[in-house]
Write a structure and sequence with these properties.
The chain is mainly α. The chain is built from 19 helices and two strands. The protein is globular, with a radius of gyration of 22 Å. It holds the Pfam family Branch_AA_trans.
Length: 450
């Protein structure tokens, strides 16, 4: 019989998961959306919250229904696809993108404003990133201590600081919302929808499943059913926190245009807004918030990727993988934030639509009897346009791609994959029926029934 977990412990585990998700992307993209969307902020946030927050809970539930790990979920398409997708996903969420991005953002917002000698920026970045990565390794070393370190100590500190910052912006608003800019003038919802990709939280939900299970092992929870229940409960706590955070960040951005003007990125929006609200002391408040959210993200992502590679290549231990990927992240960090963002954006536009397709398919599994051809057809349809979007983002023949494939509905808005995914779904269903493929249903407990 499973022992009943105290509510306080459940909250701590929920805070731990919230801390894993709450990284630099969560804090810097919504303020920028608020600035650019202006009076259309809440329309844009409707789309942003769907992909940046709502899909996160669906991803967590999908993961529990699909077998508990991203490899099992993606394996419904094909084993080779599962391997390629998982490796690309984990490397992106770890040393190639998230860890370097997070470390660079923390430096730019929390450290760089305090550096007087701007001529040695590269040296200061290297020293800071080295110390930051070493701290990440230390906190990631023992996964059973995640709840105590992340859920009971770090998370409550930055939550209080964020409440102080947001509370001040509500009590003494910086200004009124400005006029919408660019794509937010007419396509605010769809623009917000695609901007939600950049938080990477849906992808993170796939990645954090394994490390979440490992981190709660100390509580004596063994059965897959109980682990799944706890994952979903912690996910609900996380979603509540993320919604409150994103709406608050968008509010700060939208109300900041009058006193600070339009900024180049969300980090600058937050830094300048904090100064307007609290004077020079605001730099320390926002710097501490970014520092703490950055360390929790780095810990979660590095631990997750090390845990995954230990699982597929057990001859190399978790701790050795941790050092390997931390070192790789350190090297990439020092290429600079602009380079990191430029290189990673196409990968996100490729991975995110496929991840969303997998989530939808696992929920709809019983409607099409779990036929493999439906999974294959849908992923091919989605992946085809996702590859085109990634090529455009990488500025590889963008005009030619738009000319050749502009006839696809929603293609110019970055959502053409929805249409081709539906077409692939239908074709896959026809193929499955014609071949009389086997049926694989999922019952209410998340177990397969053949």
């Amino acid at each position: 019989m499973e022992k009943k977990m105290p509510f306080s412990q459940l909250i701590a585990i929920g805070f731990m998961l919230f801390a894993m998700f709450l990284g630099a992307g969560n804090v810097i993209f919504a303020p920028m959306l608020g600035q650019e969307a202006g009076t259309n902020t809440w329309i844009a946030m409707g789309g942003f919250l769907i992909t940046g927050v709502g899909m996160v809970l669906l991803a967590i539930i999908a993961l529990t229904r699909g077998g508990g790990t991203v490899e099992k979920l993606a394996g419904r398409v094909h084993p080779l696809f599962a391997t390629v997708f998982s490796i690309l996903l984990f490397l992106t969420l770890g040393p190639i993108y998230v860890v370097p991005r997070t470390t660079s953002v923390v430096y730019e917002i929390a450290i760089n404003p305090l550096v007087l000698d701007k001529s040695n920026t590269s040296l200061f970045l290297f020293i800071f990133s080295l110390l930051f990565i070493v701290l990440t390794i230390y906190l990631s070393w023992n996964t059973t201590k995640f709840v105590d370190r992340l859920g009971k100590i770090i998370t409550p500190i930055f939550v209080v600081l964020l409440i102080v910052l947001v509370g001040k912006s509500i009590i003494t608003p910086m200004g009124s919302f400005g006029e919408p800019q660019g794509d937010y003038i007419k396509g605010a919802f769809l623009k917000g929808f695609t901007q939600g990709y950049y938080t990477m939280d849906v992808l993170a939900a796939f990645v954090f499943g394994g490390i979440f299970i490992k981190s709660i092992s100390a509580f004596g929870i063994k059965s897959e059913k109980e682990v799944s229940k706890l994952f979903i409960k912690a996910g609900i706590i996380t979603i509540i926190g993320l919604v409150a955070l994103q709406v608050s960040m968008a509010w700060i951005g939208a109300s900041s245009v009058n006193p600070i003007g339009y900024m180049a990125n969300g980090g600058e929006v937050l830094a300048q807004s904090a100064i307007v609200l609290f004077g020079q002391f605001g730099i320390y408040i926002i710097g501490t918030v970014i520092l703490l959210t950055g360390i929790t993200t780095n810990v979660a992502c590095l631990a997750a990727v090390a845990e995954y590679f230990e699982r597929i290549m057990p001859t190399v231990s978790y701790k050795k993988w941790l050092i390997v990927f931390a070192t790789l992240g350190l090297v990439i960090t020092n290429f600079g934030l602009t380079t990191i963002l430029t290189l990673a954006s196409p990968i996100l536009l490729l991975l995110y639509p496929i991840a969303i397709a997998l989530i939808v398919l696992i929920f709809a599994n019983n409607l099409f009897n779990g036929h493999q051809s439906v999974y294959v057809g849908t992923v091919i349809g989605v992946g085809f346009v996702a590859i085109l979007d990634a090529l455009k983002e990488a500025t590889i023949f963008p005009e030619a791609i738009n000319t050749m494939f502009g006839f696809i509905p929603l293609f110019e808005n970055g959502a053409g994959w929805v249409v081709t995914g539906i077409i692939g779904f239908v074709i896959g269903l026809v193929v499955a029926k014609s071949r009389k493929e086997s049926v694989t249903l999922i019952n209410i407990a998340g177990e397969e029934v053949h």
